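A quick aside before the break. I want you to see a complete sequence-to-structure record at least once, exactly as it would be stored in a machine-readable document. Don't worry about memorizing anything.
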Amino acid sequence: MVSIASSPEQLTADWLTSALRESDQLPTGNVTGVEHKIIGTGKMGDNARLTLTYDGDYNAPTTLIAKLPATDETARGMAGALGAYHNEVMFYRHLAEQTAIATPKIYANEVNDEGTDFVILMEDLYRFKAGYHIYLLLLLAGMSEHNFGRRIFSSFY
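That is the input. The structure line, written in tokens, reads:
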């Protein structure tokens, strides 16, 4: 289990090497550099796109998305009180594989006992625009919004 990195600055090359090694994405070699850019307009948490460099040519991701707690203490406290961070980590840990929908690959997924600090390191789905994936899924599946929702929830009931 990797430690919880609460900010993009804590997502160092060493931390990322450990996370990718634990998720079997980087059996040898090391991350040698990381650049981050805050993306999105998260209200309860912060998201960053990470661009990685390695000390060799490995079959490892060159970009990742990090989901982190909000830097705003009020938003962070509210998210912790509502269980938002805990619930998202638990979704990816226990439920994502059981759904009928595609989810990003997860490389690190940790939350503290209080539920106020977390990190999710996931596949970068940069080629999609926000919301566009739902429209495409509906078109490809030939479903209405109602049937799509029923399909998602039928995985659990």
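Two observations worth writing down. Residues 38 and 48 are 4 Å apart (CA to CA). The chain is about 35% helix and 25% strand. We'll return to this after the break.
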